[in-house]
Amino acid sequence: MLHDLAERLTTHFQAGGEIMIPLLLISVGMWTLSIVKFRRFLQDKRREIPPAECISVFKDKGAICKTGLPLWQWDILSQYMQNRCDDPELNREMLESMRTRQGTKVMRHIGTILILAAVAPLLGLLGTVTGMISTFDVISTFGTGNARALASGISEALVTTQSGLVIAVPGLLLGSLLYRRAEKTKTRMELFCIGLQNATDGQSIIRE
Known about the structure:
Shape: elongated
Number of domains: 1
Largest sheet: none
Radius of gyration: 26 Å
Number of strands: 0
Strand content: under 5%
Distance between the termini: 65 Å
Order of helices and strands: HHHHHHHH
Number of helices: 8
């Protein structure tokens, strides 16, 4: 069963010609980035804790807090606790700067996934053009009597188009889902920063 499937996929890949190689690379890269991002989002969501609890754990067990929190939460918390001052406005601006920087990191690779998904059908179209050129070359050389040669060019044109679309559709869906998750994470970052400042306003500053 698996052997037959592998043989059919190999035949399908060979029918698409050289354009199938960059299409395969795009597909592998796109899915790898998507899986890594989804895993990171799921892990971070499970490990997030409220600002007041973060502060309490940070003061008592800083090392444990670092390993238990999402990276973005730990970065904002540790930098804010080390650099905050008695001016609430300066603290707010500092938190906003940290949130913006972490928001940029959260969006990382999502644009790449969407670009790869958009490039795939264009490469499929390039394969279509290449296949049709090959078909016309056969017609100009042998006429329409060589059915096998004609079928090869037409097959290349159709297979690459199909492959480009098969890669692009799930890629665009994955990119959209990841983008929405990133936006939700950025919203939670904003709420975390607000809660962090509210929880520390009026507290004495202790420098180690």
